[in-house]
Design goal:
Oligomer: single chain
Largest sheet: 4 strands, mixed
Order of helices and strands: HEHEHEE
Distance between the termini: 9 Å
Radius of gyration: 13 Å
Shape: globular
Number of helices: 3
Number of strands: 4
Helix content: 25-40%
Number of domains: 1
Strand content: 15-25%
């Protein structure tokens, strides 16, 4: 297990995992755009298997929504009766190794 305590470390780890692994399964409360990890995700769109992103509280950036609105592997969730707030990021490869 790796403890990540800063935004800079998190960005570095996301970028490394995005490059290293073949498939992504993510669920997150919201998503941003204009960052290096966002650009890496766009470059590696074919690796997405399933991503679920919350849009409640208007935290997900409109550019992220626009980039993935018509992608059937990306789903947006609005949950006004509660808070959709997961942070799950699974990266796998063709040999079933995962992080």
């Amino acid at each position: 297990m790796k403890l990540i305590t800063t935004a800079k470390e998190l960005e570095k780890e996301f970028r490394r995992l995005t490059e290293q692994y073949d498939y992504f399964y993510w669920s997150t409360a919201w998503a941003s755009s204009g960052s290096k990890p966002f650009n890496d995700l766009l470059t590696n769109k074919g690796k997405i298997q399933k991503i679920v992103v919350g849009i409640h509280f208007y935290q997900t950036h409109p550019d992220f929504i626009e980039a993935f609105l018509n992608d059937n592997k990306v789903r947006f969730i609005q949950q006004p009766d509660g808070t959709f707030h997961p942070k799950l990021y699974i990266f796998t490869d063709k040999n079933y190794k995962w992080k």
